[in-house]
Design goal:
22 helices, eleven-stranded mixed beta sheet, 19 strands, alpha/beta, elongated, 788 residues, single chain, four-stranded antiparallel beta sheet
């Protein structure tokens, strides 16, 4: 106890090492350094009496000199290995002194470079049908062992979730370690390179480093100095790391990477000497991607600079250097040069101009343009430059054709063209088999509409009358060339459908064989011959045609060459095949499926336009106002009256329909159910349909007729005069008016009976065709005799 207390009470300071200790360490280092050098030297002291004394003095001198050399930065053994001096660094002996060594690119560094990361997310893999089926079975299984199976699945799912979390944690740690490595690796590499160049350091730096290491070793050996030494070492390490990060080696520039490779090829292609220095002929920027980067190439005098040589040189540069470069060659002065700069980026493509979404017929600029038009000029719409498009329905383009799909706005286009011509005093003849395209023109003086598809002869007569008017005008103009005629427009809507209806009518009514009354009628429908003849002659007498086609091939329209007669065509909502049929050129432009958007095809010139649009009622009123201002006389300027329209024929289903609710709506079920007879028929074959005491509503027993069906109240036209002569009709018309209910067979059978039977009634020939009365045919079939 007393000894422990005395030891605890002992306040004597621990022994310290002062200047004598440091001197002893230095001497020890000098002796060691001197011994290492003495081992390489030969003895120069002669043996004798003073041998021991001289040896001692020489040893001391060598120790001091060794200390001076060691802390002076000299080599510890051997000769100097570099050209370094006390204050200046040097290069290793055996290399070109003063010539900097260009760093080389290691293929290993390229191989371990991180791969490029794709920004495109891979689609998540969907579970297979087998996996989905297994999951569904496990979720819905309720049999034996379901509890154990459920626990097993839950355990597996829990394990999978935690395994996934652990995997993501490890991936995050690995990413952090890689980030630390990427930061620390350059610092370690820099310090290693600095240590590797130890022999190239200045002697002063090497001496200071040795003195610092000696002090650090001594400080670590002395307990009293250990803390300060560790702090100093930590500060020195941090400073060294900061300096290493600041002065870490930069990656080689593009001039170092690509320069030697490009120079090897250029020297051969330009036929330069083998000892030519690259720095005198080729200069590459350090960063090829810089905005102002330039590649300067000095050209020899033998370089002729032809287009082929320039293209080859430019192709070589672009094939060996990243990016796209364009060259500028100079062959003036003492030095020929080729300077390559980045190819300027293409100018951003401006969006293609588009036509307006709609063009109002009543807009101020459109009305002003219409008012300034000459006779025959028509405002069509606006193009993609917002310019108003005007074309003349005369001169080189007297006839227009449209090929526009459903919903393309052709009806509105036809109406807008027609009312502009109405304002210029035109007569309009419309053959509208669709019955809805020229609704807005009904009731306007000078407009004659034939739109009953059940009476195609009316439309044919209108075409024939148009042709007769053209012939009459041509005859009169031949006598008086200065005579002016009002414009006459033939508007044919849905010309292909009109062709089918007209062809069917012609096949039913033509004269198939020759007889004493004349030759047989041709099989081809002659109406298209009239259209073609009127188109060829009409341009000189202001007779114009506007037709809408789906198929403008000559084979579909009688083979009269109509496509070439329509010099101005409008295409819209078309298919590739329609374009080839109507226009016939390639490549086929893309169709713009928008109402009113049409391509105007005039020769070899194609432009998109947005046609005019306006409500039908407003267009009708606008045209009527123009007619009133003109004081228009429908008979003026015409040589004959337009053909009269036949009595409108209703479709077969409408003729047989009975109405309870509306005379113009579809028929509905009768009140008594589907087994009741048609409402309104009170008797049939002498038997009452409805019992006398039955509770029947008024509408059920009232026959609701369609206007014009009974010829009395609500009918169209006046009642027939009983004293008038019987109406003569073609055989096809007779077959339509009467039917099997009156004992008259169908038209095909009538034609056979007329050709084979000698007792068939004789008709009256009108314009080379036989006409009959209804009474003749009904009376002929009344006895119901077997005349086969």
């Amino acid at each position: 106890m007393h000894s422990m207390a005395a030891l605890a009470a002992d306040t004597t300071p621990p022994p310290t090492v002062g200047g004598s200790g440091l001197l002893l360490a230095v001497l020890l280092v000098g002796i060691l350094f001197n011994k290492r050098r003495a081992a390489t030297d030969t003895p120069s002291i002669r043996p004798g009496k003073l041998r021991s004394t001289v040896s001692a003095v020489v040893s001391v001198a060598r120790s001091v000199w060794g200390i001076i050399r060691f802390y002076g930065g000299r080599e510890m053994r051997g000769e100097p290995r570099s050209t370094a001096t006390f204050w200046r660094s040097g290069v290793l002996l055996g290399t070109a002194a003063g010539t900097p060594q260009a760093p080389t690119v290691s293929m290993a560094s390229v191989a371990v470079a991180p791969p490029k990361v794709s920004l495109v997310k891979k689609p998540r893999r969907q579970p297979s049908p087998w996996a989905r089926g297994a999951a569904t079975w496990i979720a819905t299984y309720r049999g034996r062992g379901a509890t154990a199976l459920d626990r097993t699945v839950r355990t597996a799912l829990w394990s999978a979730r935690w395994a996934g979390r652990l995997w993501r944690l490890l991936k995050a740690l690995w990413a952090a370690l890689r980030a630390v490595y990427r930061f620390v690796a350059p610092i370690v590499v820099t310090l290693a390179r600095v240590a590797r160049l130890w022999h190239c350091w200045p002697y002063a730096a090497r001496g200071a480093a040795r003195l610092a290491l000696t002090a650090a070793a001594l400080g670590l050996l002395v307990p009293a100095w250990r803390g300060w030494t560790l702090a100093a070492l930590g500060l020195a390490a941090g400073t060294a790391a900061a300096l290493a990060h600041l002065h870490r080696p930069k990656p080689p520039g593009d001039d170092v990477v690509y320069g030697p490779r490009l120079w090897t090829i250029l020297r051969t292609d330009l036929d330069l000497p083998a000892d030519a220095a690259r720095e005198q002929w080729l200069m590459l920027p350090e960063r090829l991607a810089a905005d102002g980067a330039r590649i300067v190439l000095r050209l020899p005098w033998t370089f002729r600079g032809s287009e082929v040589e320039r293209d080859q040189l430019t192709g070589l540069v672009n094939s060996r250097i990243p990016g796209e470069w364009v060259g500028r060659y100079s062959f003036t002065g003492e030095t020929f040069t080729a300077v390559y700069t980045h190819k300027p980026p293409p100018k951003p493509k401006e969006p293609d101009p588009e036509c307006p979404e709609g063009v109002d017929f009543f807009a101020d600029d459109i009305q002003e343009a219409i008012a300034s038009c000459e006779v025959g000029q028509v405002v069509l719409g606006k193009d993609e430059n917002q310019d108003i498009i005007i074309r003349r329905l005369d001169g080189e383009t007297p006839h227009w054709a449209l090929s526009v799909g459903s919903g393309g706005g052709k009806s509105t286009f036809n109406t807008s063209v027609a009312i502009q011509l109405i304002a210029q005093g035109y007569h309009i003849i419309a053959a509208d088999v669709k019955r809805s395209s020229v609704k807005a023109l009904e009731g306007i003086p000078g407009v004659y509409i034939y739109n009953d598809p059940k009476n195609p002869q009316d439309m044919r007569n209108a075409v024939e009358w148009f042709k007769d008017e053209i012939d009459a005008r041509s005859y009169v103009m031949d006598k008086d060339p200065d005579l002016e005629f009002p414009g006459l427009l033939l508007l044919i809507e849905e010309a292909n459908e009109f062709a089918d209806v007209s062809k069917e009518w012609w096949d039913d009514n033509r004269k198939p064989t020759s007889d004493k009354y004349g030759p047989a009628d041709p099989a081809a429908d002659p109406v298209w011959g009239d259209v073609a003849s009127a188109a060829r002659l009409g341009r000189f007498v202001r007779g114009n045609i506007l037709a809408v086609f789906q198929d403008l091939r000559d084979q579909a329209l009688g083979g009269k060459g109509l496509r070439n007669l329509f010099r101005l065509k409008f295409m819209g909502n078309y298919s590739v095949q329609q374009w080839k049929n109507v226009i016939g050129t390639t490549p086929v432009p893309d169709s713009v499926d928008k109402a009113g958007r049409m391509m105007l095809v005039e020769g070899n010139k194609n432009i998109w336009i947005q046609t005019l649009y306006g409500p039908g009622a407003d267009l009708h009123q606008w045209a009527m106002e123009r007619r009133e201002k003109q004081g228009f006389d429908p008979a003026a300027g015409l040589f004959g009256a337009p053909p009269e329209r036949s009595a409108e024929r209703m479709p077969r289903l409408v003729q047989a329909a009975s109405r309870d609710d509306s005379p113009e709506g579809p028929q509905t079920a009768s009140e008594g159910g589907l087994e009741d007879n048609t409402a309104g028929r009170l008797s049939h074959d002498g038997a009452d349909v409805t019992a006398q005491d039955a509770d029947v509503t008024g509408p059920r027993d009232r026959l609701r007729l369609i206007p014009g069906q009974a010829g009395q109240e609500g009918s169209q036209g006046p009642a027939q005069d009983p004293t008038a002569p019987p109406e003569l009709l073609p055989l096809a018309e007779v077959a339509r008016r009467v039917g099997p209910e009156q004992g008259v067979p169908k038209y095909d059978t009538l034609r056979q009976h007329k050709a084979r039977r000698d007792d068939f009634p004789k008709g009256v020939e009108i314009n080379g065709k036989e006409h009959f009365t209804v009474a003749q045919i009904v009376a002929y079939y009344a006895p119901q005799e077997n005349r086969a």
